[in-house]
Amino acid sequence: MEFILINGKGEKFTFPVNPEEVSISRQKGFDTTTILSYGEFDFPQGDKVKGISFASFFPKEFDESFCQGSEQDLPDPQTAMNTLNEFLSLKAPLRFIITETAVNVPVFVSSHQSTFRGGEPGDVYFDITLRTWREMKAAKTAAGSSGQSATAVNKKPRVDMKQKNKSYIVKSGDSLSKIAKLELGNSSEWQKIYQLNKKIIGSNPSAIKPGQKLVLP
Whole-prediction pTM value? Predict the structure, then answer.
């Protein structure tokens, strides 16, 4: 069994140590209304967003008795912690999967807490909470008695979580390394841009032309 988060680029993050337990909370949504002297009444409004919580740790040293994968797969604890922090700031949903179970849902990381314990140098303990995500989409239904179409909420849209690639229009004086520095923050990433746009640029990566539309990684 593996606990996996996948971002919009299809990159997988596998938690190296499975948690002892996972808490999944489900709640019913209610709209509470006060009616004159009769008091409060609850009207059901559908299911609330589910919360998924668990705790585990990122070990500094690999131990096959509790670690997933191989020693080469073990992430550095500080790097793994920073990855969770990056997930926390994402505005696009991730996909959370627990293999060998029915859990395969789009989520946001809603909270993440790290703990360092004395006597266990290098290990990083964490608690994480995920909230399942669903897109609200309006859909037109058949016309009502007034002849006007009504609007309903489609609760089960087809979710496309793939991250859309950015594009860049080449300007005079541009080079791939200049574009990589400007758009990706690192001029050495120009090769990735070239590989994605080889058919447009041709065999010479220096032969880009103003007006060409390049796809960025």
Answer: 0.54
